[in-house]
Amino acid sequence: xxxxxxxxxxxxxxxxxxxxxxxxxxxxxxxxxxxxxxxxxxxxxxxxxxxxxxxxxxxxxxxxxxxxxxxxxxxxxxxxxxxxxxxxxxxxxxxxxxxxxxxxxxxxxxxxxxxxxxxxxxxxxxxxxxxxxxxxxxxxxxxxxxxxxxxxxxxxxxxxxxxxxxxxxxxxxxxxxxxxxxxxxxxxxxxxxxxxxxxxxxxxxxxxxxxxxxxxxxxxxxxxxxxxx
Length: 229
Fold this sequence. Notes:
Layout: H1 2-11, H2 16-28, E1 37-38, H3 40-47, H4 51-63, E2 67-68, E3 75-77, H5 82-106, H6 109-127, H7 131-148, H8 152-171, H9 178-194, H10 198-221, H11 223-227
Antiparallel strand pairs: 1-3, 2-3
Helix pairs in contact: 2-4, 2-8, 3-4, 5-7, 5-8, 5-9, 5-10, 6-7, 6-9, 7-8, 9-10
C-alpha cells in the first residue's frame, strides 16, 4: 500500500497547490513522520518541477505547522502542535458561523437554490463511498457559504484559515461514517439558510466545525491507523 501511495504522489501534478496537498496528506496520515527530511532536490525530481515551486510548497507547509526549516538545512516534518491546531479550529468555527449567519440573510434566491441542489446531489457521493469526490464537494459547499456572506474581507479571512487547515479537514473523511455525518451536518446548515434563519445557520456551522475539529484530532492522535488504510 505504501508503494501505491508513492506512485500516486508522483502523478499528482506540478502546481504548488497539488504538491502541498500531496505532501500534507502524507504527513497528516502518518506516511511521513516527524523528523523525516524533505529535500528540495528529491521533491523536485519526484514532481518533475524546478526547485522554485518546491520552496513555495515547503513555505506553505511551514505556515500550516507541518514542517520546519532552519537556514541551510533541509526542511523536516514536525510534530503537529495540538495547541496551534486547536487555535486555528477555534478561529475557523467563529468565522464559519459568521459566514453562515450572513449567508442566511444575504444569499440571493439563485444562491440558495444552488447550495440546496449541490447539497442534495452530494448524497450520491456518500452512497458510492466516494471520499475524494466528497472532499472536493465539501470545499465547494463551504466556499458557497463564504461567498454567500457577501463580505469580501470575511471571505478572505476564512479562506486563508481554511487553507491552513485543509489537510486535517480532508483527512476526516477517512473516519468510518464521517461522510454520512458530514451530510447531516450540512443538511442542518442548508435548512436554516433556506429558512433565512440566521441564528440557526450560525449555530449549525459552528457545531459542524467543532465536530470536524474532534475528527481531525483523532487523525492527529492516531496517524498510523490512517497510513495503513
